[in-house]
Amino acid sequence: GAGVSQTPSNKVTEKGKYVELRCDPISGHTALYWYRQSLGQGPEFLIYFQGTGAADDSGLPNDRFFAVRPEGSVSTLKIQRTERGDSAVYLCASSSGTSGRRDTQYFGPGTRLTVL
Amino acid sequence: SQQGEEDPQALSIQEGENATMNCSYKTSINNLQWYRQNSGRGLVHLILIRSNEREKHSGRLRVTLDTSKKSSSLLITASRAADTASYFCATLGGAGGTSYGKLTFGQGTILTVHP
User: Fold this and answer.
1) Counting CB atoms within 10 angstroms of each CB, which of A96, B16, B97, B111 has the fewest?
2) In this complex, do A45 and B102 lie within 8 Å of one another by their Cβ atoms?
3) Do A59 and B102 touch (CB under 8 A)?
4) Which of A2, A50, A52, A53 is nearest to A27 (CA)?
5) How far apart are CA A34 and CA B16, in angstroms?
6) A-chain residues near B107 (CB < 8 A)
7) Which of A31, A89, A108 sits opposite B40 (nearest CB)?
8) How far apart are CA B110 and CA B113, in angstroms?
9) What pLDDT, in 10s, does the model give residues B29-80?
10) With contacts defined as CB-CB under 8 Å, which chain B residues touch A110?
C-alpha cells in the first residue's frame, strides 16, 4: 500500500513568511509524528499525535510552530514568522498505534524548507 | 543534546567487507531501532531490538544491545555498494518517561561502500 506522503517536497520562503507543511500518513495509522532534521544531524522530535489530539508536543521549539490533525488522518505543521534557523528537512512518520508507543514508525520523504 | 551517539561518524569500506557501527545512549529505554537514510531524505526502518533482548538478526544485519553499557552495535555483513547511506540509531524511552511516543536519534554514521 501507499506509504507516508509529504507535500511539498521542497519549499523556499522568505524570512517572516508563514508556511504550512502537509503529511498524509499510512491509511489506518492512528499515531503520527513530526521530526525536524538539520544538515548533518539526526532527526529531532517535534510533536506526536494519537488520533486527533497532540499527545506530546514537547519538541516544538517555540510558539511559532503549531500542528493540527483535525480528523485524525492528515496533519499540517504550521510555522509562523519563519526564521533562517527554521531551514531543515521536516519529516513525518506514522505508526499503527495498535501496540501503543512501541510500534514501528514509518517515515515519509520529508519536506525540505529553506528560509531565505 | 542527542540521546544516541553513533561511532564512527563516517566509515569507508570495500564491497564484501563487514561494516560495524556503534551507538551509545544515556537513559533507560524501551527499545532501540536502527534506520537508514539515503540522500538526507526519508528514513527506512531496518531493525528493532527490545530492552530485554541481546541480539537480533535480519538478513545481512545483526544488532546487539548491551543495556548495562547503554550501547548497541549494527553489523552489516558482506556489504554492497547499495548499502551506501547514513545509518541512525534511535531510542524509545523506558517506562515512566515523559517522552511517550518520541524516538530520540543519534547523529548518524555515514557509510560508503566502494565497488
Assistant:
1) B16
2) yes
3) yes
4) A2
5) 36
6) 40-42
7) A89
8) 10
9) 888 999 999 976 789 999 999 999 999 999 999 999 999 999 999 999 999 9
10) 41-42
